[in-house]
Automatic annotation (TrEMBL):
Biological pathway: Glycan biosynthesis; glycogen biosynthesis
Protein name per Swiss-Prot or TrEMBL: Glucose-1-phosphate adenylyltransferase
Enzyme Commission designation: 2.7.7.27
Record site feature (Could play a key role in the communication between the regulatory and the substrate sites), residues: Q60, W99
The organism of origin for this protein: Candidatus Limivivens merdigallinarum
Domain Glucose-1-phosphate adenylyltransferase/Bifunctional protein GlmU-like C-terminal hexapeptide as annotated: residue spans: 288-361
GO molecular function: ATP binding; glucose-1-phosphate adenylyltransferase activity
Pfam families tied to this protein: Hexapep_GlmU, NTP_transferase
Biological process annotations from GO: glycogen biosynthetic process
Sequence ranges assigned to domain Nucleotidyl transferase in this UniProt record: 8-257
NCBIfam families assigned to the protein according to its UniProt record, in alphabetical order: glgC (TIGR02091), PRK05293.1 (NF003670)
Length: 424
């Protein structure tokens, strides 16, 4: 009989709709980060660095790139005969076909998978945060407190606490009360969406709540455990943790990587971040090129100037082009004579010559002001932008555009340009 002390279930089905055109063709955990990685690399690397060698990855929305990236788990040393990494999409059952309808429903539908390992503990993770955490230390805390459920929490500024699920604890770290996004929070300890359950407690809660629609951990499972006398403890974490759920926070987290002493260090020997890397040639930097405070991926060709930017693998920056404060993802080609400013440009984009982005006034986006903000220009993957156009701030572009899409050669600030067949 296979027996694992703790297995991990990684929720990676999220659409990440607040990332707009960046996630119109790809699940949020598969979005590129830091030039070389994808967001899901961080929780997967945390697992292997913490000695957790059995991980179920639950996918749903646009899973293709995620599946290809994870493969059989070789980069994370998770290509094991027993355990390892397993991708768990929703599947059709004899009686009905069901999508995952909530985070807990997704876990419930994979009870059989979990039971094959007879785990004592199950670690529940989400696939869309950037952080390093030793889950073994959290497990030791869970055992020492004889808890049924341990929730990782971190202190947040009181004025931001209403955006999170908040826990209230006594002097022994036992949770006495919950508040889900409260108007008047009673504490500033926010749940990080990282849980360790004793398997018996998790199974009991999931089976009892199986008919609950959109069954969710924060809204249903945790309150159920609390109301039914289970012991819930809060494990406080004080390291770097970033939810990259909005374009602004995603852009900021990437920009923080190029600080002289980055708050989040990708280069620590003892806590490596692993990823699936293609074998590609080294970068080429021409004699006229200038690069300052930037991360440049393998296989790039830089003929222009790059300042304060994160450039993915295989990107070309043409002669006379200046890239500033931007994120350019892999295999994107930028022509000559362009000015790219405060832009997030997704994978496999083609930009013509003499294109200017991030120009004009900081006007809110007309269609989705809560998504396309922060003064950024956001360009979705496989987009084509013709030569000699100017693109304003708080704009979104997706699809194969041509000169006729830009009146007088301009896409004004606050406008959205999505060509048919592209969803934003």
């Amino acid at each position: 009989m296979i027996k694992k002390e703790m297995i991990a279930m990684l929720l990676a089905g999220g659409q990440g709709s607040r990332l707009g055109v960046l996630t119109s063709k790809v699940a949020k955990p598969a979005v590129a980060f830091g030039g070389k990685y994808r967001i899901i690399d961080f929780p997967l690397s945390n697992c292997i660095n913490s000695g957790v060698d059995t991980v179920g990855v639950l996918t749903q929305y646009q899973p293709l790139r995620l599946n290809t990236h994870i493969g059989i788990g070789i980069p994370w040393d998770l290509d094991k005969n027993i355990g390892g990494v397993t991708v768990l999409p929703p599947y059709e059952k004899s009686s009905n076909s069901e999508w995952y309808t909530g985070t807990a429903n997704a876990i419930y539908q994979n009870l059989n998978y979990m039971e094959t390992f007879h785990p004592e503990y199950v670690l529940i993770l989400s696939g869309d945060h950037i952080y390093k955490m030793d889950y073994e230390v959290m497990l030791d805390f869970h055992k020492a407190n004889n808890a049924d459920v341990t929730i990782a929490v971190m202190p947040v500024p009181m004025e931001e606490a209403s955006r999170f699920g908040i826990v209230i604890t006594d002097d022994n770290n036992t949770i006495t009360e919950f508040q889900e996004k409260p108007e008047h929070p009673k504490s500033n300890l926010a749940s990080m969406g990282i849980y360790i359950f004793s398997f018996a407690a998790l199974k009991k809660a999931l089976v009892t709540l199986k008919d609950q629609s959109n069954c969710d951990f924060g809204k249903h499972v945790i309150p159920y455990c609390h109301e039914n006398g289970m012991k819930l403890c809060a494990y406080e974490y004080n390291g770097y943790w970033k939810d990259v759920g909005t374009l602004g926070s995603y852009w900021e987290a990437n920009m923080e990587l190029i600080d002289i002493i980055p708050e989040f260090n990708l280069y620590e020997e003892f806590w490596k971040i692993y990823t699936s890397s293609e074998i590609i040639p080294p970068q080429y930097v021409s004699e006229d090129a200038k690069i300052e405070r930037s991360l440049i991926g393998d296989g790039c060709e830089i003929y222009g100037e790059v300042y304060n930017s994160v450039i993915g693998a295989g990107v070309t920056v043409g002669k006379g082009t200046v890239v500033r404060d931007s994120i350019i993802m892999k295999e994107t080609q930028i022509g000559s004579g362009c000015t790219i400013d405060r832009s997030i440009i997704a994978e496999n984009v083609e930009i013509g010559d003499n294109v200017v982005t991030g120009t004009g006034e900081d006007i809110p986006n007309k269609e989705k002001p809560n998504i396309y903000s922060f003064g950024l220009t956001t360009i979705g993957e496989e987009t084509v932008i013709p030569s000699n156009v100017r693109i304003g701030k708080n704009t979104a572009i997706s699809g194969k555009t041509d000169a006729s899409d830009y009146p007088d050669g301009v896409l004004e600030s606050g406008e959205t340009l999505i060509k048919e067949g592209d969803l934003a």
